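ok here's the first one, seq then C-alpha cells
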Amino acid sequence: MVKKDSLIKGTLILAAAALVARFLGIFQRIPLDYMTDSHGGGYFTVANNIYLMLLIVATGGIPSAISKMVSERYALGRPDEAQRIYKAALLFGAVTGVLITVLLLVFAPFYATHIAEKPGADLAVRAIAPALLFFPVIAMMRGYFQGRQFMAAGGISQIVEQILRVITAVGLAYLALAMDWGQSWIAAAATFGSVFGSVGAFLVMLSYARKLKRQDAKDAAGAGASPQRTGRSVLPFGAIYRELFKISVPIVITSMTVQFIYFFDTSFFIKLTHGYYAAADADQMLDWLGVKAQALAGIPPILAIALSQSMIPIISSAYKVKNMQEVERQASLVMRIVVFTGVPVSLIMTVAALSITGLLFSNTGGSGAVAALTAGTIFQITMMTSNTVLTSMNKPRLPMRHALIGIVVKVVTSLILAPLLGVYGIILSSTICFMAIAWLNFRQIRKEIRLNILGTRWAGYALTIAVASSAGWLVDYACRTYIGGIPVKITYACSCIAAGVVSLGLYVALLILLKVVTHEDVQQFPGALRRLLNPLMRIAGRRGPESSR
C-alpha cells in the first residue's frame, strides 16, 4: 500500500534524498580523480556539465508545476483532469527525452571541438546522452507523485539512481583503465554510469506507479460509483501545456542559474583563459575546477536550503491572506537561519580547502579554486533563499528576471576577468553574479516587507566570521606544518578535523558571547538547532522565560 506523506515528512524525505545524492556525487569524483589525468578529468567535466544543463532545461520547474496542477485538481474533486495532466506530462517528457538525446548524439563532436575546445570529450558526451531518454519522464512522474503527496517515490528513486550511477561509473571507468583504453574511454565509461542510474530510477518510479494505480482502483471500488469518476476528462493537451509552461518557465530559468554558470565555465574555459594559461595548464585547471571545486562547492548550500524549504508553505499561506506581519517574521527568520547555518559550512571548507582537497583527492592541486568557489557559495545560498522568498510571495517572474540579468553580468565579467586572473577570474565573476541577483531580490522584497535579519548585530557577526576563519586557517596550517611521521592522508584528516572543530566552536561561541544570536532567535529555530543552542545559551547566562521552565 502506498501512503501519503505529511508536509514535514515529505520535506525531510526530499532533503535527505538531495543530501545523499550530493555526497554520492562527490564520492564518484574521488576515484575518478585517481583514474584520470588532466585530459580525462576535463572530458568528464565537459560532458557532465552539458548533461546537467540540458537536464534542467528539459525538466527543471516542470515537476513543480505538475505537482501544483495535480494537487489542485484532486482538491477540487477532478481526478480525471489530474490523470489527463499526467498523461500530457509523460508525453512531453518522452518527446523531449528523445529529441535532446538525438541532438546531443549528433552535435557532440561539434560542441566538444569548437565550443569547449576539448575534442576528446565527444565520446563522453555521447556516452551520457542516453540517460536523457529516461530522466524527463522520471521528472514528470516525480512531479505527479509529489502532487499526490507521495514524496517517498521521488526520494527513493533519486537515491537508487545515485547509488547505481556511482557504482557503475566507477566500475566501468576502472575496467577501461585496466584495459588501457585511454583517457577518452575512461571518461566515457564514467559518464555512462548515469544511464544505469536513470534506468534504475525509472524502474523504481514504475513500481510506485503500479502500486498507486492498484490503490486508486481499490479505493474507487470501496467507494462505489463515485461522481468524481463518472466521466473522462476532455481537457485538451494544448490548455494543459499552456498552464504547465506558464508556471514552469520562470522556475526553469531561475533554477538553472547555478548549473548554467558551471556549464558556461567549463564550456568556454579554454577560450576565456587562452591568453592566461598555456594549453597544458588550461587542461589541468579545467580538470581541477570541474572534478574538485564544483563538486565540493555543492555541499554548503544543502543544509541551508533544506532548512529554508520547510518555511516556504508558511510564507505562501501568510502572503495569500495578506498577513504581512507574519510574512515579514517568517521571511526574516528564513534568512536568519540560512545566514547562521550556511556560512559556517562555507567557512570551514574555505579555510581547510587544502587539507580537504588533499584528503579526498590524489593531490592538493586546485585547492585554491576549491577555496575560492566554496567561499562564493555564501552569496549563492543568499541568492537561492531570496529566490524562494519571492516565489513564496507569488512573484516567480521577478527571480526569473533577476536570474537573466545575473547571467548577463556573469558573461560580461567573465570576459573581463578570466583573461586577467584565469580560473580565479571565472570564479570571481560567478560570485559577482550571485551578489547581483541577491541584491536585486532583496530590493524587490523590501518594497513589500521589512526584513530584519540581524539588525544592529552585523558588526558582531562580521567579527565572529573574521575570528573563526582566521583561527581555523591557523590551526589547519599548523597541523599540516608540524604533524609529521604519519601517512599524509592522516595528516590531512587531522587538519580538517582540528580546523573544523576550532572554527565551528569559535563561531558558535562568539555568536552567543557577542549577542549575535539571542534567546528569541533560538526559540524560533528548528528543533535540532534549539536543542543544540539552548544549553549554550544557559551557560552564557541568558536564560529566557521558556528555557527556564
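and now the second one, same deal
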Amino acid sequence: MAFTTYRPDIDGLRAIAVLTVMIFHFNSQWLPGGFIGVDIFFVISGYIITRIIHADIMKDNFSFSLFYVKRIKRILPLFYIVSVTTLLVSWFLLTPEDLVMLADSIRYASVFIANAYFEKNSGYFAPAADTIPLLHMWSLSVEEQFYFAWPLLLFLSMKYLSPGHRKLFFITSLLVLIGISEYAARGAEASAYYLIQNRGSELLIGALLSMLIHGKQDALFARESALAIAGLVGALVLLSLFFLFEEGTVFPGFNAALVSVATAMVILNGELRKGVLYRLLSTRILALIGRLSFSLYLWHWPVLVLYRYYFNSIDAVGYAACAFLTFLLAFLSWRYFEKPLRYLNVQKKWVFIGYFILPVLVLVMIAKDIKRHHGYDDRMPEQARHLYDISVSSFDDITKEVSADGRYRPFELVPIGDEHLLPKAPKALLWGDSHAGHFRPFVEELGLKNGFYSLYGGAGGCPPFIGVDLIKHGRPEAECTDTNNQVFEVIKNSDATLVFLAGRWAMYAETTRSEGEKGSHVFLGDSSDYSESLENSRRAFRKGMEATIQQLIANNKQPVLFEQVPSYPFSPSNCLIKKATYSWMKNEICDVHMEYVTKRQAYANAVIMELEKKYPTLMVIRVNDKICKDGWCKSELRGVPLYMDNDHINDSGSRLLFDRYQHSVQYQQLQKLIRP
C-alpha cells in the first residue's frame, strides 16, 4: 500500500482532538483534561508534514517554495476570514480596551508570533482568557514556526548527516526539548504553555515517527499484533488522561510527552489499515469532523468568547447555540472559502502576494489604526463611554511629583495620600496582593482627610502572610515568599505605626477563583505540609493570617485589615456598559446575589472574626455593607461603576467606598488610631 495513501483514521483522531478541546473550553468540568487535544494536533501535524517533506527529500524532489505555497493556501485564508469576522462582530461588542487587545492579537498572529505576544501579556493582571477572542491562535503560531524551521533542519540533516548521526541528533534534541519543557512547566508557566521551545517536542515526536516508519510497511505488518496492542494502549492512555489531567496539572513537560507518545502509538497502529481502533477512528462521521477540524478549532473559541461576553454567562441553550453556530460557520467557510482558495490554480508569486503579503499588510494596518485610536471609544454612546472611562480608572494612572525614599523598596515609592508630607516617613504602609492595590485610592482619601501618606508593597496573587507560602506543584513559589519577607522586614524597621492588610481572602481560603473565571487552583502551605488540598490551604490560611497579625502587634504596629469586596462570575462594568449601549438590555441585572458572596467568603470571614476577638487591637474595615443590601451586592453606586473586572474595584469605586465609609462609626474608631 502506498505510503501517502489517505488515512481516514487520522482525520478521526483530528475529530477527537478538536471535540475534546471544544468540550473543555465550553466547560472544563465536563472533560478536565480536554486541553490535551491541542497536543494531539501537534503530534499529527509533525507526522503529516514530515511524511510529505521526508518523502520528497528522499526522491530529491523537495521544493521549499512549493511547500510554503501549500502551507499558505492551507492556513491563511481561513485565518483571515475568522479574524476579520471576529473583528467586525467585536466592533459592536467589545469595550475599547478589549478591542485594542484583539487588534494586537490579530497583528501578531498575522506574522506568526501570537504565542510570543500572549506569553508576554499573560500573568495575574492580564485580561481574562475568556475575553480574548483570538487567544487560541497561539497554537497556530507554534505550528507555523515549526513549518519555518523544520523543513530546513530536516533537509540539512539528511544532506550532511549519516543515518546514525541523524538519529542520534534528533533523539538528543527530543530529550533536551522535553527537559526544557518540564523545567518551564514547573517555573515559567506562561512560556511553557505558549512558546515553541516548550512545545517543540510534541511536533518532533510526530515527525520522528514519520521518519522511523518511512518505507517500512512490510516490517510493520510483520509486527501486526504488537502494533495493534500498542494502538489500543495509546488510545486507553489518551482516554484516561482526558479525565485525569486538569488545569493544575504540570504541563506541558513530561506529561505532554506522555500524551505525544500515546498519540504516536495510535497513529502507528493506523498504518495497518485494519483493526478495531482503525475502524472506529475511520467512521464516516469522525472522518468528516476531522476534515472540518481546522475550521472548527478556529471558529469555536471566538464564538464562545463573544457569546459569553455579550450574555455574561452561558447555560444549556447557550452551549447548544455556540456548538450549532461553530459547526455551521466551520462547514460554510470550509466548503465555500477554505477549499476553493486552497485548490485555486494560482502562480506561486501571486500566492505570496495575494494570500500573504497584501492581506497581512491590510490586517496589520487596521490593527495599528485601532490601537492608535484607543479602540475607537467614540463608537459607543456617550453614557456607555462615560461608564467605560470610570471602569478603567486606576491609581496607576495618577502621576505624583515626588517619591519616597528608596530604602522602602520593595514597596512602591509613589506616595498614597498627602505627598506634601515628604520627605517625612510614611505613617502607614499598605501590604497585600492586587486587592491591596485596588484599595490604594481608598487609603489615599483616608490620608488626605487625616494628614498622612502611605506606600504600597506586595505582589499580585500573593497573600500578605509570613510563615506561609503560595505553593505550586508541591513547591513554594519563591517570588511570593521572598517578596513578603522583604516587605515585612521593611515594615519592622520603619517608623510606620499603621499597617493595612488586604487580599483576595476567599480565593486563598477556597483555593478557587470566581465561578467561570479561568485559572488553576490557588493553594497555600508551609514547611510542615506542602500538599495541595482545600484542608491544608485553609489550615495555612488561618495560620498565616494569625502569625502576620501577631508579629505586627509584637513589632508595635497597628494592623488594619480590609474585608474583601464581592467577586463576580462576570465583569459587572462590561454589563453596565452594554445596558447603556443596547436599549433591549436595559433590564439586564448586573449585580450579584448577596447569598453567593456570603457563601464564598464564609470561611475567610469566620477566620477574620475569630482573630478580631483574639486580638482586640486588630481593626477590620468592612466594605461589603456599603455595597450589599436587600439581597444584592451592587455593581454601581450613585451611577458610578465600582469594578474594573470581575473582582477588582476601580479608582473611582475605591474612592466612593471611602466616601461611604467615612460616615460610619468604624471610621471614627479608625481616626482615633490615626490621631491618638
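notes on #2: The longest helix spans residues 64-93. The chain has a mean pLDDT of 92.
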